[in-house]
Write a structure and sequence with these properties.
The chain has 357 residues and is an alpha+beta fold. The protein has 11 helices and 14 strands. Helices cover 33% and strands 20% of the residues. Strands 3-4-5-6-7-8-9 form a 7-stranded mixed beta sheet, with helices on both faces. It has a 5-stranded mixed beta sheet with strand order 11-10-12-14-13, with helices on both faces. Strands 1-2 form a two-stranded antiparallel sheet. One magnesium ion binds next to strand 4. Pfam families: Inositol_P (PF00459). It comes from Capronia coronata CBS 617.96.
């Protein structure tokens, strides 16, 4: 099957990085650095980016990576850099054979910094480019809420493989979303799911750490968006951060569609995963600031996983997200993810609300 090795490497690399992010959370190694845009970046973000790029470069040396983080601030903060190195150098998958597939350990702290900086591809619509968000929803991660380790392979501008590791979402696809999803999750028993998709091959979920509840020996299950026919019964997913998507517009759209249930707020591409498995029905991300341009690593994996699970993903104009234009989604504003049968109806409501402003 096409992209079999890429899928396997991506799944294992994301699972290994999630071992690190969970350790960072539980060891409270929570030093943060503030980036130019004032968003936080943690030991977990840097460490996960290093581990995932190392795995990609070991297996596919000439592939490029568009990664969210870069190491310049670490090169100036030796203490932070060595804290990260001390965690990164010891992270291993349980299964030695799988671990070996990702290449040997990173050899030194200096090499780790260089690897983090290999996420500097300009992106584009030619060749093989991985989009990597080592921790999506960093604020959710710090809060103990939802976050996701996100990796997608884009070939000539099209997303071919998408993997999302969500350590704080339930393993069970049928577990309903709760209102406090964004606040009080934990990676205890029954939590931690890995969503995957390959273009044209459908979408799946499985336990993130190969143990726990499963329906067969590997625990891989096909996933599908919900079979909702009456959109007024929809469960809508939205951001936690008020600055990331418009809660006011979402409320007006919900009213127009006759939706009475309160939206479920959670950070990260866990929203795409939740829609793909039918735990949520809709994901709406309407712009707050006109000048904000979405990043490809915040959407590439989720976009493919939802589409392969029977959903449609567009911007507010009804166009597909274009991942071939560089590091950002320069041609798209906002995101609407919904089961294919109700997407047009939701899009219409979105446009009516936006046009009436
Ligand atoms: N102004 C603005 N508008 C839209 N999006 C923004 C904005 N600022 C930041 N970001 C990006 O939002 C990513 C996390 O957003 P989410 O909506 O998934 O989660 S959250 O509930 O808002 O925390 C977050 O990803 P991470 O940095 O990986 O956490 C950012 O890339
Ligand atoms: Mg960030
Ligand atoms: Mg992100
Ligand atoms: Mg991030």
């Amino acid at each position: 099957m096409a992209y079999e090795k890429e899928l396997q490497v991506a799944q294992l690399a994301v699972a290994r990085a999630a071992i690190l992010t969970k350790a960072v959370f539980h060891e409270k190694a929570k030093g943060t650095v503030s980036k130019d845009d004032k968003s936080p970046v943690t030991i977990g973000d840097f460490g996960a980016q290093a581990l995932i790029i190392a795995a990609i470069k070991h297996n596919f040396p000439s592939d490029e990576v568009v990664g969210e983080e870069e190491a310049s601030s670490l090169r100036e903060q030796k203490d932070l850099s060595s804290t990260i190195w001390n965690l990164v150098k010891d992270v291993k998958l349980d299964d030695p054979e799988s671990d070996a597939l990702l290449g040997g350990p990173i050899r030194s702290e200096a090499e780790m910094l260089d690897i983090i900086d290999m996420g500097n591809s300009a992106g584009g619509n030619k060749g093989r480019i991985w989009a990597l968000d080592p921790i999506d929803g960093t604020k959710g991660f710090l809060r103990g809420g939802q976050y996701a380790v996100c990796l997608a392979l884009i070939v000539d501008g099209d997303v071919k493989v998408g993997v999302l590791g969500c350590p704080n979402l339930p393993i069970d696809d049928r577990e309903p979303l709760t209102e406090d999803m964004g606040a009080a999750a934990s990676d205890a028993e029954g939590k931690g799911v890995l969503f995957s998709a390959v273009l044209g091959q459908g979408a799946t979920s499985q336990p993130l750490t190969r143990r726990g509840a499963s329906t067969d020996s590997t625990g891989v299950r096909p996933i599908h968006v919900s079979k909702i026919s009456d959109v007024s019964e929809a469960v809508m997913c939205e951001s936690v951060e008020p600055g990331h998507s418009s809660k006011g517009d979402n409320a007006l759209i919900a009213e127009k569609l006759g939706i009475t249930r309160k939206p479920v707020q959670m950070d990260s591409q866990a929203k795409y995963g939740s829609v793909a498995r039918g735990a949520g029905d809709l994901y709406l991300r309407l712009p707050v600031r006109k000048d904000y341009i979405e990043k490809i690593w915040d959407h590439a994996a989720g976009d493919l996983i939802v589409r392969e699970a029977g959903g449609q993903v567009t911007d507010v104009a009804g166009n597909r997200l274009n991942f071939g234009l560089g590091r950002t989604l320069t041609e798209n504003k906002g995101v609407i993810a919904a089961p294919a049968n109700v997407h047009a109806q939701v899009l219409k409501a979105v446009q009516e609300v936006l046009n009436s402003k």
